[in-house]
Design goal:
Blueprint: E1 3-7, E2 10-13, E3 18-25, E4 34-39, E5 46-51, E6 58-60, E7 68-73, E8 78-83, E9 92-99, E10 111-114, E11 118-123
Parallel strand pairs: 2-11
Antiparallel strand pairs: 1-3, 3-8, 4-5, 4-9, 5-6, 7-8, 9-10, 9-11
Amino acid sequence: QVQLVESGGGLVQAGGSLRLSCAASGRTFSSYAMGWFRQAPGKEREFVTVISRLGYSAYYADSVKGRFTISRDNAKNTVYLQMNSLKPEDTAVYYCATPYRPGIWTSATDFGSWGQGTQVTVSS
């Protein structure tokens, strides 16, 4: 079982930036992809981005492409989400997650371990 702890959320004005971190423990970090999802009030949890286990590949939701960047440091067992040009519609609780099995996945149902989430609020 892997434990995930997110940090870095907060309140920011539209156009601003935030960097989220997710620290992992309990499983070989570099063996699995890592993903970020978000859930706004009254909405389904949605895919944001995923990075391959060694960081060579990344995929993004269209809504964040060009504004968000995912990265990972396997030596520190940490994945990051750099969010630039934030918009009010980016307001949500952001979760990091790791999938049940090796490979690249983008559906929340393929991810078995989740952090507690960190709130990101973008004011207009």
